[in-house]
Amino acid sequence: MQRRWSLRTRFVLFATACLIPLIGVVLFFLDRSIQRNTDQIINSENTIAALTSQNMTGYMNGVVDTLDKIASRPEILSLNRDESPTTLALARDVRADVAGLLLVDATGTLVSTSGPSASLLSSIPSQLQQTIATGQPSASGIIQDTDEHAIIMISVPVTTMPDATTTSGQSDASATPEAAPTAIAETEATGQNVGALIAVINVSYLQDLVVPYARGRTEIAVVNKDGIVVATAGIQNDLTGFLDRERENISAGLEGDTGDFRTEDGSGNERLGVFSPIQSDVNTWAVIVTVPAPSAYAQSLITQSIILLIGAAVLILFVAVILGEFTARQMRTLAARASAIKQGNFNVNLEPVGSGEIGQLSEALADMSDQLARQMQGLEESHQERARQASQMRDLLRRTMRMQEDERRRIAGDIHDAVSPLITGALYQTRALEMTNGSTPEKVREEGLRAVDKLLEQASDELHGVIFDLRPPDLDDIGVVAAIEAFIQTIERAGLRCELDVVNEPGPLSPEVRLGIYRIVQEALHNVVRHANADEAAVRIESTADRLRVTIRDNGSGFDPELSRRPTSLGLLSMRERAVAIGATFRIVSKPGSGTAIIIERANTGSLLSEQVLADLMGPTPTSDASEITDEMPTIVPSEPVVANDDDSQESRST
Fold first, then answer.
1. Is residue 227 over pLDDT 80?
2. What pairs with residue 153 in β-bridges?
3. What kind and span of H or E run contains 110?
4. Which of 250, 358, 398, 500 is deepest in the core (most CB within 10 A)?
5. Which has the higher per-residue pLDDT, 430 or 136?
6. Torsion angles phi and psi, residue 112, rounded to 5
C-alpha cells in the first residue's frame, strides 16, 4: 500500500525547509561578530600596552632624574661618609615610593645608606659594575629583601673630576651646594665615575601602575631580561608556565618590536595577546597584555544561539503542527473513528463534524457505530451473565463438597474413636463367653454380661452424642441458647470448665442462623478442648434490637492469628464460612500465651433472612479464602490480656 504524506507532515517539512536558511544566516552573523570582537580586543590590548608602557617609562625616568639630582650633591660627589646619610634620608622622605638609598664607591663598597641593608649589594654586583663602568643607569630584576619584600634596584653613576675646580678657584669639596651643579656641568665631558647611587623600589608601587588597566579577565606582565617584574594575579599564579609559553613574544618585546599573538593559558583556554617595548633611561623592558579570545567564550555564545534557534524551531514547528492539525482535523477524525469501528471499539464518541458531504459521512458513520455498539453490548452482557452463573455453580459445588467431606471426616473420627472401641470390647466379651460352652461359673458369666451391657450402654451414649452433634434436637425445639447450654454440659464432662452468659436472649431466629451459630460455638469449643490446653472457657450471647453477638473465650495457650489465614486451618475456615453464610462478621483475637477470643456478629433480623444474606444467596457465593474473610473485620493482636469486647470489659475475664 502506497504511503501518502499527511497535511500535518507537509506543513512540518515546509517549516523545516524554512529553518535551514535561517540557521545559515545566524551562523554567518555569529562568525562576523566573533571576528569583529577579535579586532576590537587587539586594539584594546594595544591601547592598554601603550598606557602601561607610558606609565612605566615616565616612572622609571622620574626615578632616574631624582637619583641624578641627588648624585650631583657635593656630599654625594665627594662620597662624604658623614654628610651623605643626611642627604639620602632627606631624599628618601621626599620620594615615598623609594624604600631606601645606598651610596657606593667605585669598588662597590658601601659608603652610606638610608633604609635598606648593605647585604642587598650582594644581589647586584654585575649591575654596579655596569653602571660605574658605562656611566649609564640600570635596573635589576626582582629581588627579595631581608623582609621578604619584592624590590627592584635602580642605580645611576656618581660622576666627578678628581681635580676639577669651579670658576672661582675653589675645589669641589669646598664648593657650596649651589655651585656644585655648575661644576659638574663644566666637567661633564671629562668626568670620572667615582661611585654609584642606588634606589630601592618596592614592586608594589610598580604594581599600582599596572593593576588599574587589568580589568575583567585582562592579564598584564612587565618583563625584563631577568624575568617578570610586575604581573597580575592570573600570571603570578603560573609564572613558570607563562615564561615558557611566551618566551618568543617576550624576546621580541625586549628587542623593541611590537605585535600581537594567540596563545593558551595554563588551563588550555585560548587567549589573544600583544607585546610592546618599554624604553626608559634605565633599560628596555617589555609589556605583555592578554585577554581571553572570543573563541574562549564563543562556546557559551554559540550554545545560547543554538538554544535560541532550537526554541525558534520548536515554535515554528509547533505553529506548523497546529496549522496542519486545524486543516486536516476533520478528515483525520473520521478516519480514526472508522479505524476504531473496524477494530471493534464502538464506545467512540461520534458527534457530527464538518459540513456538507463530510458532515453527511460523519452522521452515517455515527448511526452505524451506535447500532453495532448496541448489538455488541447485548452479546457481552449475555456472555457475562453465563460466566457469572457458571462461576456461582462451581463455587457452590466446591463449598458443598468440602463441607460434606469435613462433616463425614469428623463423624467417622467420632465413631472410630468413641463408639468402635466400645462395640469391639463388647464383642470380645461375648465371644469369650461363647468359647466357654456354658462351663463358665454363673457368677463369672453374670459379671461378663454386665460388662457387655455397660460397654453397649456407653456405645449407645456415644452414638447419641454423635447424633446430637449431627443435628441437636433441642436446636429446633427449645432454641439455640438451650442447645448451646446442653453442648456446654457435654464439654464440661470432657474436663473443660465452661460457663454460658446470656444478655437478652435472642428472639426467633431462622433455622439457618440457629444452626450456623450452634456449629460455630461447637467447633470453637472443640478446638479449645483439643488444641488450646485451656482449663476454662466462656460463651457470651448478647442480643440488642439490631445486633446479635456471640463471643467464645478461653485461657489457653493462644496462637498467632496469621495462622488462621492458611488454607490448612480447616476448623477456622469452617467457622468463617458458616459466619459468612448467615451474614455475620468473624473475628479472632489472640496472642501466643494469652488465650483466644472468637467473636461473631450479625444484624438481628429475627427469623427473616437479612438483605445481605439474601444478596449473597442470589449473587456470587462469597469466597472462603481466609484473607478475604478476615479483611471484613480486621484481626486484632492485643499487647494486653485478650478480652472479648470493650463494651463488656467489666464483666469479662482475662483469658
1. yes
2. 200
3. strand 110-114
4. 250
5. 136
6. -155, 165
- Residue 553 in this model has a pLDDT that exceeds 90: yes
Rounded Cα distance between 471 and 513, Å, is 14
Sheet holding 284-292, edge to edge: 227-231, 219-224, 284-292, 270-279, 259-264
111 and 104 Cβ atoms separated by less than 8 Å: yes
Burial category of 451 from C-beta neighbours within 10 Å (exposed 0-12, middle 13-18, buried 19 and up): middle
Grid coordinates in use for 50? 601603550
Q: What is the DSSP letter of 161?
A: -
Buried b (16+ CB within 10 A) or exposed e, 476-492: eeebbbebbeebbeebe
Least confident of 22-31, 185-194, 218-227, 381-390: 185-194
- Distance between CA atoms of 44 and 31, rounded to whole angstroms? 20
C-beta of residue 324 within 8 angstroms of C-beta of residue 34: no
Q: What is the pLDDT of residue 621?
A: 42
Q: DSSP per residue over 388-438, as a string?
A: HHHHHHHHHHHHHHHHHHHHHHHHHHHIIIIIHHHHHHHHHHHHHHHHTTT
User: What CATH number matches the domain at 72-161+173-206, 3.40.47.10, 2.60.120.10, 3.40.50.200, 3.30.450.20?
Assistant: 3.30.450.20
Is 562:626 a contact under the CB 8 Å cutoff?
Answer: no
C-alpha cell at 349: 464518541
In angstroms, the Cα distances linking 60 to 103, 203, 257 are 19, 12, 20
Query: What is the SS3 string spanning 347-403?
Result: CCCCCCCCCCHHHHHHHHHHHHHHHHHHHHHHHHHHHHHHHHHHHHHHHHHHHHHHH
Q: With 0.70 as the threshold, say if the pTM is over it.
A: no
Instruction: Confirm if 290 and 273 have CB atoms less than 8 A apart.
Output: yes
d(CA 332, CA 462): 84
CA-only gyration radius of the chain, Å: 60
Query: How much of the chain, in percent, has pLDDT values that exceed 70?
Result: 76
| Cell representation of residue 195 | 661611585
Q: Where in the chain is the domain with CATH 3.30.450.20?
A: 72-161+173-206
Residue from 638, 625, 633, 549 nearest 589 by CA? 638
Question: What gap in Å lies between CA 64 and CA 128, rounded to an integer?
Answer: 15
Those residues with Cβ within 8 angstroms of residue 429's Cβ, 6 or more apart along the chain or in another chain: 448, 451, 452, 455
In tens, the pLDDT along 297-343 reads: 666 667 777 788 788 888 887 887 777 766 667 676 777 777 777 77
How far does CA 629 lie from the centroid of its chain? 41
Burial of 131 (0-12, 13-18, 19+ CB in 10 A): buried
> What's the one-letter identity of residue 417?
D
Q: Where in the chain is the domain with CATH 3.30.565.10?
A: 477-648
Helix axes 480-493, 442-470, angle to 10 degrees: 140
Backbone angles phi, psi at 139, to 5 degrees: -130, 150
pLDDT band at 608 (very low <50, low <70, confident <90, very high): low
Q: Pairing mode, if any, of strands 284-292 and 270-279?
A: antiparallel
- The CB density around residue 524, as the number of other CB atoms within 10 Å, is 25
Q: How confident is the model at residue 364 (pLDDT cuts 50, 70, 90)?
A: confident
DSSP state at residue 73: S
CB 296 within 8 A of CB 269: yes
Alpha carbon 153 to its chain's center: 61
Higher-confidence residue of 38 and 165: namely 38
The Cα 6–Cα 500 span in angstroms is 84
CB 111 within 8 A of CB 81: yes
What average pLDDT does the chain have? Answer: 76
**Most distant CA atoms of the chain, gap in Å:** 191
CATH architecture of 477-648: 2-Layer Sandwich (3.30)
